[in-house]
Amino acid sequence: MDRLRELLNKYSKWFSNNPGLTNLVEHEIQLVSDQPVRTKPYRISHRQNEILKKEINRMLKLGILEVGESDYMSPIILVEVAEKEPRPCIDHRKLNGIIRTEYFPLPNIEERVEKVSAAKFIAVS
């Protein structure tokens, strides 16, 4: 355990408390209905509201969220677990109910293993 702590301290600059961002993938969600889903906000306490405001502002500053307009509305809740920071979660269950299901077949693992088993070198890109 001491060795692990030592390594984590040595390479701490490679770790971040902030989530990473990518622009490598753009995803479009297809819906089965053009009727917008609007769910009224859940009731939350004043304390939870202040925590949510602070977290939303932090996420805006980090570029994780951006201000926008939409005909769709899903309620946000604050998940609080003992010994962990509270985190905002959005209840998208109603929206999820109208998303068109897409199927992406997974490659056959036995075929992949068979192809690489005879290889002397394997390149990972």
List the helices and strands and how they pair.
Layout: H1 2-10, H2 46-62, E1 76-79, E2 87-90, H3 93-96, H4 109-117
Could you describe the 3D structure shown?
There is one protein chain. 31% of the residues lie in helices and 6% in strands. The protein has a two-stranded antiparallel ribbon with strand order 1-2. The mean pLDDT is 89. The protein is built from 4 helices and 2 strands. The chain has 125 residues and is mainly α. The longest helix has 17 residues, at 46-62.
Quick recap:
The chain contains 4 helices and 2 strands, in the order ααββαα. With 125 residues, it is mainly alpha-helical.
Instruction: Using the CA coordinates, give the radius of gyration.
Output: 22 Å
Q: Helix share of residues? A: 25-40%
What's the overall average pLDDT, rounded?
A: 89
Strand percentage: 5-15%
Largest sheet: 2 strands, antiparallel
Uncertain parts: none
Shape: flat
By DSSP, the count of extended strands is: 2
Number of helices: 4
List keywords for this structure.
mainly alpha, Retrovirus-related Pol polyprotein from transposon 17.6, single chain, two-stranded antiparallel ribbon, 4 helices, 125 residues
